[in-house]
Amino acid sequence: MAERGAHLTGTAVLKPTIFEIVAQESLASTLEPAFKRVFSFLVTCNPERYGWLAQWSDEAYAIFHGMLQRFYLKNYGASFAETFYGLQRIATANSKPAGKISKGQQNLSLIFLLLDPYLKAKASQFELDEIDGRPSKEKWKRLLKTYFVKGHRIYNLVREVSGMYYYLSYISDRSAYPNPLLHLLSMSLTYSHPHELISISELLSKWKEGNFTTSDGIHLLQRGFTRSLELGTFFLQFINWWNQENFYNNLMSLPVPPPPPVPDIARRYKGLCPVCIKSPSIPTALSVSGYVFCYQCILQTIQTNGKCPVTHYPAKEDDLIRLYN
Length: 325
Ligand SMILES: [Zn+2]
What we know:
Blueprint: H1 2-9, H2 18-45, H3 47-55, H4 57-76, H5 80-84, E1 87-93, E2 96-100, H6 103-131, H7 139-171, H8 180-184, E3 187-191, H9 200-209, H10 214-252, H11 264-268, E4 283-286, E5 292-294, H12 295-305, E6 320-322
Antiparallel strand pairs: 1-2, 1-3, 4-5, 4-6
Helix pairs in contact: 2-3, 2-4, 4-6, 6-7
The structure holds zinc ion (ZN).
Zinc ion (ZN) binds at residues 273, 275-276, 278, 280, 293-294, 297.
Protein backbone atom coordinates (compact mmCIF):
# COMPACT_ATOMS: atom_id res chain seq x y z
CA MET A 1 0.00 0.00 0.00
CA ALA A 2 2.86 2.35 0.87
CA GLU A 3 4.34 2.18 -2.62
CA ARG A 4 0.90 2.85 -4.08
CA GLY A 5 0.63 6.01 -2.04
CA ALA A 6 4.22 7.05 -2.70
CA HIS A 7 3.58 8.39 -6.19
CA LEU A 8 0.86 10.67 -4.86
CA THR A 9 2.99 12.66 -2.45
CA GLY A 10 5.42 14.10 -4.98
CA THR A 11 4.67 17.41 -6.60
CA ALA A 12 4.82 15.95 -10.12
CA VAL A 13 1.36 14.39 -10.27
CA LEU A 14 0.05 13.89 -13.77
CA LYS A 15 -3.07 15.87 -14.52
CA PRO A 16 -5.66 13.95 -16.54
CA THR A 17 -6.64 15.62 -19.81
CA ILE A 18 -9.86 17.59 -20.04
CA PHE A 19 -11.19 14.93 -22.43
CA GLU A 20 -10.93 12.26 -19.74
CA ILE A 21 -12.59 14.56 -17.21
CA VAL A 22 -15.48 15.31 -19.56
CA ALA A 23 -15.75 11.67 -20.65
CA GLN A 24 -16.06 10.40 -17.09
CA GLU A 25 -18.65 13.07 -16.29
CA SER A 26 -20.75 12.07 -19.27
CA LEU A 27 -20.43 8.41 -18.33
CA ALA A 28 -21.60 9.23 -14.81
CA SER A 29 -24.67 10.92 -16.25
CA THR A 30 -25.63 7.87 -18.35
CA LEU A 31 -25.74 5.60 -15.31
CA GLU A 32 -29.07 6.88 -14.02
CA PRO A 33 -31.07 6.65 -17.29
CA ALA A 34 -29.66 3.14 -17.82
CA PHE A 35 -30.72 2.03 -14.35
CA LYS A 36 -34.18 3.56 -14.76
CA ARG A 37 -34.62 1.88 -18.11
CA VAL A 38 -34.03 -1.51 -16.50
CA PHE A 39 -36.41 -0.44 -13.75
CA SER A 40 -39.21 0.58 -16.11
CA PHE A 41 -38.67 -2.66 -18.02
CA LEU A 42 -39.34 -4.57 -14.78
CA VAL A 43 -42.45 -2.48 -14.11
CA THR A 44 -43.88 -3.01 -17.62
CA CYS A 45 -43.11 -6.75 -17.45
CA ASN A 46 -45.09 -7.22 -14.27
CA PRO A 47 -47.02 -4.06 -13.32
CA GLU A 48 -48.93 -5.81 -10.52
CA ARG A 49 -45.81 -6.98 -8.76
CA TYR A 50 -43.46 -4.07 -9.46
CA GLY A 51 -45.92 -1.20 -10.06
CA TRP A 52 -45.13 0.41 -6.69
CA LEU A 53 -41.48 0.57 -7.70
CA ALA A 54 -42.25 3.18 -10.39
CA GLN A 55 -43.08 5.69 -7.66
CA TRP A 56 -39.84 5.04 -5.81
CA SER A 57 -37.44 4.77 -8.74
CA ASP A 58 -35.44 7.85 -7.63
CA GLU A 59 -34.96 6.40 -4.16
CA ALA A 60 -34.17 2.91 -5.49
CA TYR A 61 -31.56 4.41 -7.79
CA ALA A 62 -30.11 6.44 -4.90
CA ILE A 63 -29.65 3.23 -2.86
CA PHE A 64 -28.06 1.34 -5.75
CA HIS A 65 -25.91 4.35 -6.64
CA GLY A 66 -24.85 4.77 -3.00
CA MET A 67 -23.69 1.17 -2.69
CA LEU A 68 -21.88 1.34 -6.02
CA GLN A 69 -20.05 4.61 -5.29
CA ARG A 70 -19.21 3.54 -1.74
CA PHE A 71 -17.59 0.39 -3.05
CA TYR A 72 -15.48 2.27 -5.60
CA LEU A 73 -14.52 5.10 -3.23
CA LYS A 74 -13.48 2.61 -0.57
CA ASN A 75 -11.54 0.30 -2.88
CA TYR A 76 -10.17 2.66 -5.53
CA GLY A 77 -10.46 6.14 -3.99
CA ALA A 78 -12.55 7.27 -6.96
CA SER A 79 -16.12 7.28 -8.21
CA PHE A 80 -17.31 4.53 -10.53
CA ALA A 81 -16.94 6.65 -13.68
CA GLU A 82 -13.52 7.94 -12.60
CA THR A 83 -12.30 4.38 -12.01
CA PHE A 84 -13.65 3.39 -15.43
CA TYR A 85 -11.40 6.02 -17.04
CA GLY A 86 -8.39 5.07 -14.91
CA LEU A 87 -8.57 8.11 -12.63
CA GLN A 88 -8.45 8.50 -8.88
CA ARG A 89 -9.02 11.26 -6.33
CA ILE A 90 -6.13 12.75 -4.39
CA ALA A 91 -6.14 15.15 -1.49
CA THR A 92 -4.62 18.56 -2.09
CA ALA A 93 -3.18 21.21 0.22
CA ASN A 94 -2.69 24.73 -1.24
CA SER A 95 -3.43 23.32 -4.72
CA LYS A 96 -0.54 20.85 -4.31
CA PRO A 97 -1.08 17.10 -4.20
CA ALA A 98 -0.98 15.78 -0.63
CA GLY A 99 -1.49 12.03 -0.83
CA LYS A 100 -4.53 9.80 -0.68
CA ILE A 101 -7.93 11.13 0.29
CA SER A 102 -8.94 10.81 3.93
CA LYS A 103 -11.90 8.88 5.28
CA GLY A 104 -13.78 12.15 5.76
CA GLN A 105 -13.14 13.16 2.16
CA GLN A 106 -14.37 9.73 1.05
CA ASN A 107 -17.62 10.25 2.94
CA LEU A 108 -18.08 13.81 1.67
CA SER A 109 -17.37 12.58 -1.87
CA LEU A 110 -20.06 9.96 -1.44
CA ILE A 111 -22.61 12.49 -0.15
CA PHE A 112 -22.01 14.89 -3.04
CA LEU A 113 -21.97 12.09 -5.63
CA LEU A 114 -25.38 10.93 -4.41
CA LEU A 115 -27.01 14.26 -3.65
CA ASP A 116 -26.44 15.85 -7.02
CA PRO A 117 -28.36 13.37 -9.22
CA TYR A 118 -31.01 12.84 -6.54
CA LEU A 119 -31.84 16.54 -6.20
CA LYS A 120 -31.86 16.88 -9.97
CA ALA A 121 -34.27 13.95 -10.35
CA LYS A 122 -36.55 15.39 -7.65
CA ALA A 123 -36.56 18.87 -9.20
CA SER A 124 -37.52 17.54 -12.62
CA GLN A 125 -40.20 15.33 -11.07
CA PHE A 126 -41.79 18.27 -9.22
CA GLU A 127 -41.64 20.31 -12.39
CA LEU A 128 -43.36 17.53 -14.35
CA ASP A 129 -46.05 17.20 -11.67
CA GLU A 130 -46.81 20.89 -12.04
CA ILE A 131 -46.95 20.75 -15.83
CA ASP A 132 -49.16 17.65 -15.80
CA GLY A 133 -51.54 19.37 -13.37
CA ARG A 134 -50.83 17.08 -10.42
CA PRO A 135 -49.91 19.61 -7.73
CA SER A 136 -49.95 18.60 -4.06
CA LYS A 137 -53.19 19.24 -2.20
CA GLU A 138 -51.62 21.04 0.75
CA LYS A 139 -50.59 24.62 0.13
CA TRP A 140 -47.32 24.41 2.07
CA LYS A 141 -46.22 21.40 0.05
CA ARG A 142 -46.98 23.21 -3.20
CA LEU A 143 -45.00 26.26 -2.07
CA LEU A 144 -42.12 24.12 -0.88
CA LYS A 145 -41.93 22.32 -4.21
CA THR A 146 -42.07 25.58 -6.18
CA TYR A 147 -39.24 27.07 -4.12
CA PHE A 148 -37.28 23.86 -4.43
CA VAL A 149 -37.58 23.88 -8.23
CA LYS A 150 -36.60 27.56 -8.40
CA GLY A 151 -33.69 27.04 -6.02
CA HIS A 152 -32.47 24.10 -8.04
CA ARG A 153 -32.59 26.17 -11.24
CA ILE A 154 -30.38 28.82 -9.64
CA TYR A 155 -28.04 26.13 -8.29
CA ASN A 156 -27.83 24.59 -11.77
CA LEU A 157 -27.01 27.90 -13.39
CA VAL A 158 -24.30 28.66 -10.82
CA ARG A 159 -22.91 25.17 -11.26
CA GLU A 160 -22.78 25.39 -15.04
CA VAL A 161 -21.19 28.82 -15.12
CA SER A 162 -18.63 27.98 -12.44
CA GLY A 163 -18.05 24.57 -14.08
CA MET A 164 -17.18 26.32 -17.35
CA TYR A 165 -14.84 28.70 -15.50
CA TYR A 166 -13.10 25.75 -13.83
CA TYR A 167 -12.75 23.88 -17.12
CA LEU A 168 -11.08 26.90 -18.70
CA SER A 169 -8.79 27.45 -15.72
CA TYR A 170 -7.94 23.74 -15.69
CA ILE A 171 -7.08 23.69 -19.41
CA SER A 172 -4.95 26.82 -19.11
CA ASP A 173 -3.13 25.31 -16.10
CA ARG A 174 -4.25 28.10 -13.78
CA SER A 175 -6.15 25.66 -11.55
CA ALA A 176 -5.43 22.16 -10.27
CA TYR A 177 -9.15 21.46 -9.88
CA PRO A 178 -11.28 20.31 -12.82
CA ASN A 179 -14.52 21.32 -11.08
CA PRO A 180 -15.67 23.52 -8.18
CA LEU A 181 -16.93 20.61 -6.10
CA LEU A 182 -13.51 18.96 -5.97
CA HIS A 183 -12.01 22.33 -5.03
CA LEU A 184 -14.52 22.65 -2.21
CA LEU A 185 -13.50 19.23 -0.88
CA SER A 186 -9.75 19.93 -1.41
CA MET A 187 -9.38 17.10 -3.89
CA SER A 188 -8.17 16.71 -7.43
CA LEU A 189 -7.89 13.92 -9.96
CA THR A 190 -4.89 12.02 -11.21
CA TYR A 191 -4.20 8.77 -13.03
CA SER A 192 -4.57 5.71 -10.89
CA HIS A 193 -2.06 2.91 -10.86
CA PRO A 194 -3.27 -0.38 -12.24
CA HIS A 195 -5.07 -2.17 -9.42
CA GLU A 196 -3.33 -5.13 -7.88
CA LEU A 197 -5.41 -8.04 -8.96
CA ILE A 198 -4.93 -11.71 -8.25
CA SER A 199 -5.07 -13.50 -11.58
CA ILE A 200 -7.54 -16.30 -12.21
CA SER A 201 -4.73 -18.85 -12.53
CA GLU A 202 -3.37 -17.81 -9.12
CA LEU A 203 -6.83 -18.29 -7.63
CA LEU A 204 -7.13 -21.69 -9.34
CA SER A 205 -3.77 -22.86 -8.01
CA LYS A 206 -4.82 -21.68 -4.56
CA TRP A 207 -7.97 -23.78 -4.98
CA LYS A 208 -5.89 -26.80 -6.00
CA GLU A 209 -3.60 -26.45 -3.00
CA GLY A 210 -6.58 -26.09 -0.72
CA ASN A 211 -5.63 -22.54 0.33
CA PHE A 212 -8.75 -21.00 -1.14
CA THR A 213 -10.30 -18.85 1.60
CA THR A 214 -13.70 -17.21 1.94
CA SER A 215 -12.12 -13.81 1.31
CA ASP A 216 -10.74 -15.13 -1.99
CA GLY A 217 -14.26 -16.22 -2.89
CA ILE A 218 -15.65 -12.79 -1.98
CA HIS A 219 -12.83 -11.19 -3.94
CA LEU A 220 -13.70 -13.29 -6.98
CA LEU A 221 -17.41 -12.43 -6.69
CA GLN A 222 -16.61 -8.72 -6.31
CA ARG A 223 -14.39 -8.81 -9.33
CA GLY A 224 -17.01 -10.62 -11.38
CA PHE A 225 -19.61 -8.05 -10.37
CA THR A 226 -17.52 -4.94 -11.04
CA ARG A 227 -16.18 -6.35 -14.29
CA SER A 228 -19.67 -7.11 -15.58
CA LEU A 229 -20.86 -3.67 -14.51
CA GLU A 230 -17.97 -2.04 -16.32
CA LEU A 231 -18.59 -4.16 -19.40
CA GLY A 232 -22.29 -3.31 -19.22
CA THR A 233 -21.46 0.39 -19.06
CA PHE A 234 -19.10 0.09 -21.97
CA PHE A 235 -21.81 -1.73 -23.92
CA LEU A 236 -24.27 1.04 -23.05
CA GLN A 237 -21.88 3.71 -24.30
CA PHE A 238 -21.41 1.69 -27.45
CA ILE A 239 -25.17 1.38 -28.02
CA ASN A 240 -25.59 5.13 -27.51
CA TRP A 241 -22.85 5.86 -29.99
CA TRP A 242 -24.26 3.32 -32.45
CA ASN A 243 -27.75 4.81 -32.23
CA GLN A 244 -26.40 8.30 -32.83
CA GLU A 245 -24.27 7.17 -35.76
CA ASN A 246 -27.18 5.33 -37.33
CA PHE A 247 -29.50 8.26 -36.73
CA TYR A 248 -27.29 10.54 -38.82
CA ASN A 249 -26.55 7.86 -41.40
CA ASN A 250 -30.26 7.23 -41.88
CA LEU A 251 -30.87 10.90 -42.48
CA MET A 252 -27.95 11.26 -44.86
CA SER A 253 -28.47 8.14 -46.93
CA LEU A 254 -32.14 7.65 -47.54
CA PRO A 255 -32.74 4.56 -49.71
CA VAL A 256 -33.11 5.29 -53.43
CA PRO A 257 -36.65 4.31 -54.52
CA PRO A 258 -36.94 2.12 -57.64
CA PRO A 259 -37.80 3.94 -60.90
CA PRO A 260 -41.50 3.95 -61.82
CA PRO A 261 -42.53 1.23 -64.30
CA VAL A 262 -42.72 2.24 -67.98
CA PRO A 263 -46.41 2.42 -69.05
CA ASP A 264 -47.48 0.69 -72.28
CA ILE A 265 -48.36 3.98 -73.95
CA ALA A 266 -44.78 5.22 -73.42
CA ARG A 267 -43.49 2.11 -75.17
CA ARG A 268 -45.77 2.91 -78.11
CA TYR A 269 -44.37 6.46 -78.45
CA LYS A 270 -40.75 5.38 -78.10
CA GLY A 271 -38.63 7.67 -80.34
CA LEU A 272 -41.78 9.38 -81.66
CA CYS A 273 -43.53 12.68 -80.88
CA PRO A 274 -46.94 11.66 -79.41
CA VAL A 275 -48.61 14.59 -81.20
CA CYS A 276 -47.45 14.16 -84.81
CA ILE A 277 -46.16 10.53 -84.46
CA LYS A 278 -42.87 11.45 -86.17
CA SER A 279 -39.31 11.59 -84.93
CA PRO A 280 -39.31 14.76 -82.79
CA SER A 281 -37.74 17.83 -84.33
CA ILE A 282 -36.12 20.06 -81.67
CA PRO A 283 -36.82 17.36 -79.02
CA THR A 284 -38.46 18.93 -75.97
CA ALA A 285 -39.43 17.11 -72.79
CA LEU A 286 -42.45 18.02 -70.72
CA SER A 287 -41.28 17.90 -67.10
CA VAL A 288 -44.70 17.10 -65.58
CA SER A 289 -45.03 13.82 -67.53
CA GLY A 290 -41.60 12.97 -68.95
CA TYR A 291 -42.72 12.58 -72.58
CA VAL A 292 -40.64 14.03 -75.43
CA PHE A 293 -42.26 16.02 -78.26
CA CYS A 294 -41.33 18.31 -81.15
CA TYR A 295 -40.97 21.81 -79.74
CA GLN A 296 -43.62 23.22 -82.10
CA CYS A 297 -46.14 20.40 -81.41
CA ILE A 298 -46.00 20.60 -77.62
CA LEU A 299 -45.86 24.41 -77.45
CA GLN A 300 -49.09 24.68 -79.45
CA THR A 301 -50.84 21.96 -77.45
CA ILE A 302 -49.98 23.57 -74.13
CA GLN A 303 -50.95 27.04 -75.28
CA THR A 304 -54.40 25.77 -76.33
CA ASN A 305 -55.13 22.97 -73.79
CA GLY A 306 -52.79 23.71 -70.84
CA LYS A 307 -52.12 20.00 -70.29
CA CYS A 308 -49.94 17.09 -71.42
CA PRO A 309 -51.56 15.47 -74.52
CA VAL A 310 -50.69 11.94 -73.23
CA THR A 311 -51.24 12.02 -69.47
CA HIS A 312 -53.51 15.11 -69.29
CA TYR A 313 -51.48 16.45 -66.36
CA PRO A 314 -51.79 20.25 -66.17
CA ALA A 315 -48.74 21.89 -67.78
CA LYS A 316 -47.38 25.36 -68.54
CA GLU A 317 -44.82 26.67 -71.01
CA ASP A 318 -42.34 26.82 -68.15
CA ASP A 319 -42.50 23.01 -67.85
CA LEU A 320 -40.85 22.54 -71.26
CA ILE A 321 -37.22 21.44 -71.28
CA ARG A 322 -35.16 21.53 -74.46
CA LEU A 323 -33.13 18.29 -74.83
CA TYR A 324 -29.64 18.46 -76.33
CA ASN A 325 -28.95 14.84 -77.17
ZN1 LIG B 1 -44.35 16.49 -83.33
